[in-house]
Design a protein that fits this description.
Aldehyde Dehydrogenase, Chain A, domain 1, Aldehyde Dehydrogenase, Chain A, domain 2, 2 domains, seven-stranded mixed beta sheet, five-stranded parallel beta sheet, 15 helices, 19% strand, globular, disordered N terminus
Length: 528
């Protein structure tokens, strides 16, 4: 283990002033299971990590991109070899059901595999010049040191969306993962080191957002960070955007969502019920793409809601290692507390809670189909709320948990108003057999991502991922589109004519006489 990666574990002889006291990582499904402890990086430690990244940058950016891609190939092999182990750790540390955890690790592999070859495709262009004996070129150049701050709901997949393309493009990294997944972060760093990335190219700092995360953003005005990538709340993203914008940087912001799912009258209702169930309650609703507003055509609203509620009642909740479980615990006590607070503050007298229970699942407040001991974890009841109005905070605020607003609509225009008016614009879905309605919806929805007869959740590694409005600043992750986040275009103008050639001035243009004349200008009238 190199000292450049030392911020993620206790190494004897290190300068302990860079670390605060150790913090525990606890299984959110079983409190007695303490996974380990981790050191919290101080602001001095964050600064040291940024300096290490700065020092490593010249050599790394000079490394040919295909060779950088080869190290990503090594990482892909290492993650593949350790897929099941990483998935078990992921389930244990954040409570994601094991099948989902396997998929989350697979997304890291997919991302690596996609970008391996992009190291040979960081194409520029050769552009024809308007002058003789002159050539124009464009090149992608790395931005520099990138500060990456990620959330705990996808503690491996989302960091990979940032880290893999950023490294491929020749940037160095200082990563602040979620304090809810420090052990996974440690394991990911071990794999990056084993893949052969040089010391200082990838650096990890640990701690919560208000301390370590804020310290990393503070490195922007100090000139130690050239780019911030952030996945998290819209409120924090707005602050990061202000800090980076004041220093002429464009942050990559992937923020929250209030993702709509529309069910039309002609939809396959069996499919729509399953899609709504997964969109709402997959990962206990702890996805930025989780369903926020269910919008059902009024003529089928009652029938559809009956079928959905019957399906909800069949859900198994609890132990995330149990293959029958739909969802496990909230990621941490903090997330459960926030959800319970929303259920107290956002519900109004005109609302109707359609589900029979709400709040925290416990022996005193049970869920009928529960696996495990509810009093040993942060488990929450699924909640569906009807009677929601556009003026309600429940309609306009992301709850980030198993809590959904349900409304009815008369025509597609009204459905689109419900889908757009909250101001978020991340993910969306429509269930319909009518291709005209599907096309109209995708043309008029403001979300960055649209699913037709599929869920609001789910992303493939080669598709653009990101949102608009309160969901982000238009930046995109994944696929070739993320390369624009971690490179700058450089234009090269090479004149070998051995004489001064001025574009637009010395260019000889061909043209005909159209016969149209602009009235002549009175030059004398312009004289002082």
């Amino acid at each position: 283990m190199t000292t450049k990666l030392a911020t993620y574990t206790r190494i004897r002889g290190q300068d302990q002033t860079q670390y605060a006291s150790d913090q525990p990582s606890v299984n959110p499904a079983r409190f007695t299971d303490v996974l380990g402890t981790y050191p919290v990086t101080s602001k001095e430690g964050v600064r040291a990590a940024c300096i290490a990244a700065q020092e490593a940058l010249p050599q790394w950016r000079s490394t040919p991109a295909p060779l950088r891609g080869n190290l990503i190939h090594n990482l892909s092999l290492l993650v593949t070899e350790n897929k099941a182990t990483l998935a078990r750790w992921l389930t244990r540390e954040i409570g994601k059901p094991y099948a989902e955890a396997l998929g989350s690790v697979q997304e890291v592999i997919d991302t690596c595999q996609f970008f391996v070859s992009e190291g040979r495709r960081l194409y520029g262009q050769t552009i024809p010049s308007e002058m003789a004996d002159k050539r124009l070129f464009t090149y992608r150049r790395p931005i520099g040191v990138c500060g990456i701050i990620t959330a705990g709901n996808f503690p491996l997949a989302v960091p990979a969306w940032y880290v893999i393309p950023a490294l491929l493009c020749g940037n160095t990294i200082v990563w602040k993962p979620s304090e809810d997944a420090p052990i996974l972060s440690y394991l990911f760093c071990q794999l990056i080191e084993k893949a052969g990335f040089p010391p200082g190219v990838f650096n990890l700092v640990l701690g919560d957002g208000p301390t370590t995360g804020a310290a990393l953003v503070d490195m922007v005005p100090e000139g130690l960070i050239d780019k911030i990538g952030f996945t998290g709340s819209s409120r924090i993203g707005q602050w990061i955007g202000q800090v980076t914008g004041a220093h002429f940087q464009a942050a990559c912001l992937e923020l929250g969502g209030k993702n709509p799912l529309v069910v039309t009258e002609d939809a396959n209702l069996d499919l729509a019920v399953e899609g709504a169930l997964w969109s709402a309650f997959g990962t206990a609703g702890q996805r930025c793409t989780s369903l926020g507003v269910l919008i059902v055509q009024e003529r089928i609203y009652e029938h559809f809601m009956e079928r959905l509620l019957a399906r909800v009642a069949q859900m198994v909740i609890g132990d995330p290692m149990d293959p029958t479980v739909t969802y496990g615990p909230m990621i941490s006590q903090r997330f459960l507390h926030n959800l319970l607070t929303f259920q107290k503050t956002l519900l109004a007298p005109h609302h109707t809670v359609l589900t029979p229970t709400q709040g925290q699942i416990s022996r005193a407040n049970p869920w009928p189909k529960f696996q495990g001991d509810p009093d040993q974890g942060y488990f929450a009841h699924p909640v569906i709320v009807a009677g929601v109005q556009k003026s309600d905070a429940l309609y306009r605020e992301e709850t980030f948990g198993p809590m959904v607003a349900a409304v009815s609509y008369t025509d597609l225009e009204e459905a689109l108003h419900w889908a757009n008016d909250h101001g978020y614009g991340l993910s969306s879905a429509i269930y319909t057999r009518n291709s005209a309605q599907a096309f109209y919806f995708q043309d008029h929805i403001r979300a960055g991502m649209v699913s037709i007869n599929n869920t609001t959740s789910g992303a493939e590694a080669h598709m653009p991922f990101g949102g608009n409005g309160r969901s982000g600043n238009g930046s995109r992750q994944s696929g070739i589109w993320v390369l624009d986040q971690f490179t700058r275009w450089q234009g090269v103008n090479w004149d070998f004519s051995d004489r001064l050639q001025r574009a637009q001035i010395d260019t000889v243009y061909a043209g005909g006489d159209t016969g149209f004349r602009v009235p002549d200008c009175d030059v004398a009238a312009l004289s002082p």
